[in-house]
Design a protein that fits this description.
alpha+beta, 404 residues, 6-stranded mixed beta sheet, 22 strands, globular, FAD/NAD(P)-binding domain
Length: 404
């Protein structure tokens, strides 16, 4: 019987914990090191696409994700200036491609809790919180990880290390991987409200509004009470400080500009964000790998970042299982870099940039062409099917298998 490989996962977010669960189910010994005491429930990624739902089903998580999430069978593109719906895309066109022809809006903190509960009953798996990684050293046959803990400094040793520790990844810094790309100049404002945009305006659960002055994205999640909560994201084009942009008066003005009504909106959450488009120059150095935001970050238009991160992790779980069963194979280890980096650039980076540019386009002729193209695609069964295969990352997962 093969000896179980030891893996340290640095970062206890959704990518780290789902990946750790996948590895544990394959017989690897997994330790998750997380610097925070808990994963907070502030609004973060929520859209879980069909390709990822299939992976979660393979881990036995799908029923709970469906129970705590919100199924979104379609999404819409709107012209905010005219109020016209430009195009609607129905995931039912993927019914022959996937058992899950829809998106599930399952908030990140829910996925973390679901995955962690399943992980902790796996033999040889543990999650150590309040453990802040400070550095690592690679050797021919192992990796040593140093961290600060409530009990003082500690060292952990493993056969491999995976960094899923976010955009400011300590692991990425430790292996010297450049994080090339750019940060958008503008800030982005996110807020949540109970106001039912579907009931009052007829919107779907996922909506993108183009506007030459200030675009926005509006989508619904289940919320902690499963009663429904709407998120609105839009750019801040002012240089005013966060406390001014996030003031009640400013947010009310912003919402009323988008969706006028006689009464004020009840805003439950507000926050300002910076978005980026960056990809690590290397997803692997020796026995250390990167996944999720530690390897790549992007703007949220399309909901692709979290999904791509989970795809990273499950790809690596398969590779390390092969290493455990058949011996460490350099070609197999390097396949992770060949697949995951190229696919992120081709699908996630390219599509999220295209989606954002489409919403913010100011040239009237280009806006018109963009809208005409979306209409054409939505009305053409073949083109729409291909569009949805790409938007759901099903095309990406299929292409991954072709990269040896």
């Amino acid at each position: 019987m093969s000896q179980a490989l030891r893996v340290i996962v640095v970062g206890g977010g959704p990518v780290g914990l789902v990946t750790a669960l996948a590895m544990a189910k394959k017989g690897l010994q997994v330790t998750v090191l997380e610097m925070e005491a808990c994963y907070d429930d502030r609004p973060r990624a929520a859209s879980t696409h069909a390709s990822t739902l299939e992976m979660l089903a393979g881990l036995g998580l799908i029923d709970e994700v469906l129970r705590q999430g919100l199924v979104s069978p379609r999404f819409q593109h709107w012209d905010r200036v005219s109020g016209e719906m430009v195009a609607e895309f129905d995931y039912a066109r993927l019914k022959d491609d996937t058992p899950y022809p829809y998106v599930v809006q399952c908030e990140s903190h829910k996925l973390v809790a679901i995955a962690e509960a399943r992980l902790l009953v796996q033999p040889g798996a543990q999650v150590l919180r309040l453990h802040t990684v400070t550095g690592l050293r690679q050797f021919d046959d192992c990796v040593e990880v140093m961290c600060d803990t409530p009990g003082g400094s500690a060292r952990f040793s493993a056969d491999f290390v995976l960094g899923t520790d976010g955009a400011r990844s300590i692991v990425r810094g430790a292996i010297g991987a450049d994080f090339s790309g750019y940060t958008f100049d503008e800030r982005f404002i996110g807020m949540t409200t109970r106001f039912d945009f579907e009931k009052h305006y007829g919107y779907s659960n996922r909506n993108y509004f183009s506007d030459p002055e200030r675009w926005c994205a509006v989508f619904k999640v289940a919320g902690n009470d499963l009663k429904g909560l709407w998120r609105v994201i839009s750019p801040a084009t002012t240089t005013e400080p966060d406390e001014v942009v996030l003031s009640e008066a400013s947010l009310q003005q912003r919402l009323q500009r988008f969706f006028p009504r006689a009464l004020p909106y009840a805003i439950e959450y507000r926050g300002a964000y910076r978005f980026h488009q960056r990809v690590a120059e290397s997803f692997r150095v020796g026995r250390v790998f990167l996944a999720g935001d530690a390897a790549h970050i992007n703007n949220p238009a399309g909901g692709l970042g979290l999904n791509s991160g989970i795809h990273d992790g499950l790809e690596l779980a398969e590779i390390l299982e092969h290493s455990m069963l058949h011996g460490v194979d350099e070609t197999m280890l390097e396949r992770y870099q060949r697949r995951r980096r190229s696919l992120n650039i081709e699908f996630v980076q390219q599509d999220t940039v295209t989606n954002k540019r489409r919403m913010e386009e100011s040239d009237p002729q280009v806006r018109r062409r963009n809208h005409d193209e979306l209409r054409r695609i939505s009305n053409d069964p073949v083109a729409c099917h291909q569009f949805l295969l790409r938007a759901s990352l099903i095309e990406s997962t299929r292409k991954a298998r072709l990269i040896a």
